[in-house]
Amino acid sequence: MLSNTEKELIVQIWDKMIPVAEDIGSEALLRMFTTFPKTKTYFSHLDISPRSAHLLCHGKKIVQALAEGARNISTLTTTLAPLSRFHAYQLRIHPTNFKLFNHCILVTLACHMGENFTPVAHAAIDKFLSAFSAVLAEKFR
Amino acid sequence: MVEWSDSERSTIASVWGKINVDEIGPQALARVLIVYPWTQRYFGAFGNLSSATHGRTVLNALDKAVKNLDNIKGTYSELSQLHCDKLNVDPDNFRLLADCLTIVVASAFGSALSPAVQATWQKFLSVVVAALSSRYF
């Protein structure tokens, strides 16, 4: 459950990430591949070496989707419907991986925001990411 | 048996060397209580003061793990029994504290917590969490 204050905080934070979407997204992905090597199995078709064109492009897409979700928190299911279908029917990622990636997003945000990544901000973003992943995994079965 | 490369050993020592135990411990525990409110069930009787103390206690215990990388499981055997038998803590919550600790370290270190350093640090914490969970039957 997100309060109105939390929803505003989430939008504020993600809006700041849009100009650096490539950096944030690719860093979160790289952190995930390094800390949880099994996640690389989903990316055998891409060059996921640090700062590769594929990684930057993919990272950017993810951050932009998250920012879009942040601006439409009350209608996540409708907003994310195409992405939800994509994750269910094409990507078919084991659902536990969402948590691993969400954690790496949080670490990336913490590294970049320093003390501005307060416990309240952390809680809000964690709840948002959980809700976002739940919608992405909705159609899995 | 957990294997540590020389590079992992020195990474862990280096990260640990930069951590201010008196600050980071309480910060991590305070964060767990806010981000995962159900963990407050273990601190209800104590109030705020004790969670700061416990934060320092946890980090001091981590020091033992850093100094005994090759036998973390043995080092934590009694602590594990304590958390299971006396404190009745659901071990799934250990992972939450480990994650919050990583995030507090990330806020403090910035880019010095590179992906490679994060991976090694998290490997270390997952061994600690497994050791703390090992005496639960």
TrEMBL record, chain A:
Q: What GO CC terms are in its UniProt record?
A: blood microparticle; haptoglobin-hemoglobin complex; hemoglobin complex
Q: Which GO terms describe its molecular function?
A: haptoglobin binding; heme binding; metal ion binding; organic acid binding; oxygen binding; oxygen carrier activity; peroxidase activity
Q: Give me any GO biological process, just one.
A: hydrogen peroxide catabolic process
The segment(s) forming the Globin domain are 1-141
Swiss-Prot/TrEMBL keywords: Heme, Iron, Metal-binding, Oxygen transport, Transport
Which Pfam families does the protein's record reference? Answer: Globin (PF00042)
Could you tell me which InterPro entries the record lists for this protein?
Globin, Globin-like_sf, Globin/Proto, Hemoglobin_a-typ, Hemoglobin_oxygen_transport
What family is this?
A: Belongs to the globin family.
Q: What is this protein called?
A: Hemoglobin subunit alpha-D-like
UniProtKB/TrEMBL annotation, chain B:
Globin domain boundaries: 3-137
Any single Gene Ontology cellular-component annotation? hemoglobin complex
Q: Name one Pfam family in it.
A: Globin
Q: Give this protein's Gene Ontology molecular function annotations.
A: haptoglobin binding; heme binding; metal ion binding; organic acid binding; oxygen binding; oxygen carrier activity; peroxidase activity
Q: Which GO terms describe its biological process?
A: hydrogen peroxide catabolic process
Give UniProt keywords alphabetically.
Heme, Iron, Metal-binding, Oxygen transport, Transport
**Family, per entry:** Belongs to the globin family.
Q: Which PANTHER family match?
A: HEMOGLOBIN FAMILY MEMBER, HEMOGLOBIN, BETA ADULT 2
Q: Could you tell me what this protein is called?
A: Hemoglobin cathodic subunit beta-like
What organism does the record attribute this protein to? Sinocyclocheilus grahami (Dianchi golden-line fish)
Gene name of this polypeptide: LOC107596824
